[in-house]
Design brief:
The chain is α/β, with parallel strands linked by helices. It has a single domain, classed as Response regulator (Rossmann fold). It is built from 5 helices and 7 strands. A 5-stranded parallel beta sheet has the order 2-1-5-6-7, with helices on both faces. A two-stranded antiparallel ribbon has the order 3-4. A hairpin with a 2-residue loop joins strand 3 and strand 4. The protein is globular. It starts with a strand and ends with a helix.
């Protein structure tokens, strides 16, 4: 089984570590490309991302924090959904926001899921890992069915 390509838009190094740990704990094989802002992630998507030993390719999933420098997550989500070549990439919003408006707006813009960052470590590893694994496995199933 080849690794999933995960693009993570997150400016907090501790949360980057936790997302990677959640993927490992849930036995998700992955390659990670991480950007601190939506602006940087969009530029990389436009030029192509190089994953370890593979040619530039779109990610299998984007994990997106809503609160990032220079461009917030909702703006990133809106722009990605406007680009035909990126529109089908599932985007998992991972945020500490408690705002119902953020959830509503993310869903309206086409987020695949909206995950509030759990405060407890084990809960974070479990909930985030299971949610991302489910999205990725669904994506892989779609690819193999066609």
């Amino acid at each position: 089984m080849s690794d999933f390509r995960v693009l993570l838009v997150e400016d907090n190094p501790a949360d980057v570590f936790l997302v990677e740990e959640a993927l490992r704990k849930n036995q998700v094989p992955y390659k990670l490309a991480r950007f601190e802002s939506g602006e940087d992630a969009l530029a990389a998507l436009d030029r192509g991302i190089h994953w370890e030993n593979s040619v530039a390719a779109a990610p299998d999933i984007v994990v997106l924090d809503l609160n990032t420098p220079r461009m917030d997550g909702l703006e990133f989500l809106r722009i990605v959904r406007e680009k035909p070549q990126l529109r089908q990439i599932p985007i998992a919003v991972l945020t500490s926001s408690q705002s119902p408006a953020d959830r509503r707006d993310a869903n309206a813009l086409g987020a695949a899921c909206f995950i509030r960052k759990p405060a407890r470590l084990q809960q974070f590893l479990s909930e985030v890992g299971i949610s991302l694994k489910s999205l990725l496995e669904g994506k892989r199933a779609e690819i193999h069915e066609n």
